[in-house]
Amino acid sequence: MSSEPIPAQPVALKITPPSQGPLRRHTHTYDLMRQCIHCGFCLPTCPTYSVLGVEMDSPRGRIYQMQAVAEGRLEITDDFVEHMYCCVGCRACETACPSGVQFGKLIEAAREQIQIAEKEGGIRPGRDDQQDNGATPQAVTDSTAATDKLAKKLLRRFFFDLMLPSRPVLSLVFGGLKLYQRSGLQTVVRRSGLLDVVNALPTPFQGKLKLPEQLMDAATGPIIPAHLPEITPAIGQKRYRVGFISGCIMDQIFHDINEATIRVLAANGCEVITPVQQNCCGALHVHAGEAESGKALARHNIDVFEQYNFDAIIINSAGCGSTLKEYGHLLRDDPAYASRAEAFSAKVKDISEFLVGLDWSHGMGPLARKVAYHDACHLAHGQKIKQQPRQLLKAIPGLALVDLKEADWCCGSAGIYNITNQDMANELLERKMNNIVATGANTIATGNPGCMMQIALGARERGMDLEVMHPVQLLDEAYRAGGLYNLPEPISVEAGKQKYTLLLGIGIGVLIGAFLLRRRRRS
């Protein structure tokens, strides 16, 4: 008998499952996880899996990790966080899943659990972060990582807690960006090379600052948009009374789309009520794991809109609409709001979904456009709305609707994904633009502001003469071509304000540009 010692077997550490939050046993989310039969039908539809080929970055792999956390077999580490936030949240896997797994709710729950863990004591480093090859002192590495995390945390808190819920702050931020864009300052900054210098500085956002600045080229509408009219009467006989959700970023960047939506609704016999008291719908909060903030915003909107006896509540932004229709799920454990949330969500309709149920095609003039339609993920996969926008477009006289290959494949926008995960977003955009080029279309129609900005960016980068529009803008254009209504003349006072603001911005831009050129010559 050998006297050699028997090597000790490694002992698996017992990891305690979360004590609160959605990723734990005996919860609604845990039951949703267990519906997955691990068949793999979701894999070919997953954008991140198609690029990376990594099981942990597929829907099936992510569900496996979520369940392991719930059962205490896996810690919430940086690795787990990376896999959960690498997901674009497109929900294409839901369309492909034979078991009906509601992956959108699961990924939101996983991100909510990450935020809870962050507040409870921080996220533990993953395996890659624990390795030290000796090239950099560990203290320096830890200090840099801590600084990066703090900077990103502060930016996150500003975005979700301060900016999105506040119209004045939104107006200040986006008004400043549009002023920068239109005053000439953007041109000066780009030509001077200052943007490249700032982007290359060793900050937590090194190499990530150019894209947000480039996306703003797609912003339209006034610098500081006025409130939409609270009551817009129907054109002709009133048939419906609808509420309109104007959105937060949608109203700031694409205010003209909101105006077009109201005109089209009015043209179809709708009295449109746009409550001034409404706020952000909470979609970006919920998608990012900020569930508690999302719930607070949802409660406020329910309080505002249930005061009216609406036939429907209309939304023209796919991502917002998906969350608005899931208020019932979001507030399912709130005894004061659960049933009210269900009633609210039952009335929410995407603009295309609502219009196809009406006798809406009369009075349109011809449009000589060749149009390809891109399915916004949260419209096609979240709300299961695919044919309705196409029906609207096909009914426009003179408009030629052409097929777009992989029309329902994510463009890489995905809320703020194209800013937080720029490399992956660029891969997806490149694939989308290749398919768009193949159509030969001069117009791309899509029902989500993020998709519009992302595709417009792709077109500018390729030097394409491509117009990116919301389907409702094309309907609005057709109604105007048919003489059903004309655009109202701008109010002189408002026009004067805009002109003064723009001139002020140009003056500031010239001064800053002169200062930068002077410094450059001295150096």
Explain briefly what this protein structure is.
Residues 26-57, 72-101 form the 4Fe-4S ferredoxin-type domain. The protein is mostly helical.
Q: Could you tell me the mean pLDDT?
A: 88
CATH architecture designation of the largest domain: 3-Layer(aba) Sandwich
Number of domains: 4
Beta percentage is 5-15%
Oligomer: single chain
Q: How many alpha or pi helices?
A: 27
Strand order of the largest sheet: 1-3-2-4-5
Q: How many DSSP-defined strands?
A: 9
The gross shape turns out to be: globular
Largest sheet: 5 strands, mixed
The CATH topology of the largest domain is given as Rossmann fold
Detailed description of the structure:
The structure is a single chain. By secondary structure, the chain is mainly alpha-helical. It has 4 domains: 28-120, Alpha-helical ferredoxin (Fumarate Reductase Iron-sulfur Protein, Chain B, domain 2, Orthogonal Bundle); 162-223, no CATH class; 231-358, Rossmann fold; 369-482, Rossmann fold (3-Layer(aba) Sandwich), CATH 3.40.50. The chain is 53% helix and 6% strand. It has 27 helices and 9 strands. The strands form 2 sheets. The protein has a 5-stranded mixed β-sheet with strand order 1-3-2-4-5. Strand 8 (443-445), helix 25 and strand 9 (467-469) form a beta-alpha-beta unit. Helix 3 (59-70) packs across helix 6 (103-120), helix 10 (185-192) packs parallel to helix 27 and helix 24 (422-439) packs across helix 25. The longest helix is centred in the last third of the chain and has 31 residues, at 492-522. It is globular, with a radius of gyration of 25 Å. Mean pLDDT is 88; it is low at 128-136 and 489-500. GO terms for molecular function: 4 iron, 4 sulfur cluster binding; metal ion binding; oxidoreductase activity. It comes from Ktedonosporobacter rubrisoli. InterPro entries: 4Fe4S_Fe-S-bd (IPR017896), 4Fe4S_Fe_S_CS (IPR017900), Cys_rich_dom (IPR004017), Helical_ferredxn (IPR009051).
